[in-house]
Amino acid sequence: MSNLSPFLSKQNQLKHLEFDLNAVVGLTNINLLNNVEIKSLETLYINLENCENIRGVQNVADNFKLFNFTNLTNLSINFKGCKDIVNKDVETICSSLANMPNLKHLSLNFTRCTKLTDESIRHFTLLDHAQVKNLKTFSLNLSACPLISDEGLDYLISFISPRNATLTHLDLRFTICQKVTGKGFNDLIVYLNNNLLKIEHLTLDFSGCEQISDTTLALFKSYLNKRLKTLKQFALHLGSSQITNQGFEYLTTQIGQQLKDLNSLAIHFKLSSQLTDEGIRYVGTNAISQLKKLHTLYVGFNNCEKVTDEGMKKLVENIGASTKTVKNFSMNHHRCKQITNQTKDFVRKTMRFVDTLSLGTGVQNF
Prior knowledge:
31% of the residues lie in helices and 18% in strands. The model has no long low-confidence stretch (mean pLDDT 86). The protein is built from 13 helices and 12 strands. The protein has one domain: Leucine-rich repeat, LRR (right-handed beta-alpha superhelix), CATH 3.80.10.10. The protein is α/β, with parallel strands linked by helices and 366 residues long. The two termini are 34 Å apart.
């Protein structure tokens, strides 16, 4: 791809820069920013999604080290589907962050970068505690990276640790990372619960991690407590064949008892073949009934084959009876074969008191 340096070098007042190269066929190398210095730049977004043959990450990140990025506050790079990304590329990106002293918002998407291992996360821990010290928002997506394990989650904790006092938004996604176990998940939750001092928005996605089970969720009672007083928005995506109605009861009970200050909640269960109508009703009876400040609610069930119209109706009925504070309600039932339009009709009648209503069967991200 041609070098844009001559053009960019003249943009002395440029504050927002975006490169969208989504699915550019045949793209193997990018040379966008050679010898460019834009001191005014505050936001940089690079989208390389589905550029499967890209090998120029090293080039871009090496350029970062040469720039004057003292004013950069927002950095987002999307490598989703870039199958040739390796640990060394992540190392180069991490080392470049040291040149961004005012960075506050960092988002890195490595979904389906299947060559990445736990070593890729370890590179984040090599940053000095004084570097990236102003980070408020951190988003890391390593979904469908089959080599990521509990060890990687331990490295992640080490990176987050010196930034406990500044982080307000944390988004961690490890969908279908089959080496992640219940212990790794629990250790992460324990750490976040006990140490995040200012967290307001927390998203965790471990759906499709088959080693997370009822036993994992049973431990919620012992480590989810009222220390997360600042948490206002919580999104939890889980799901495996090892989670049954019992596990769902454990989870919803603790959310209702311990996170009473939430104003936004998203619960999304995927690939949970053991979840039935009995289990999903706990969202209303155990969780929503206790959350008196809630104004936004998302409930999703994907590939939950045993959930039926009757179960969904009972769930919605419980929600409607439990709260009148919810003003934004979304429900999703992607690939739940026993759920029909009867559920949608019932939701429309029951949830008339909300301002915004969204009903879908496609995959949604929260």
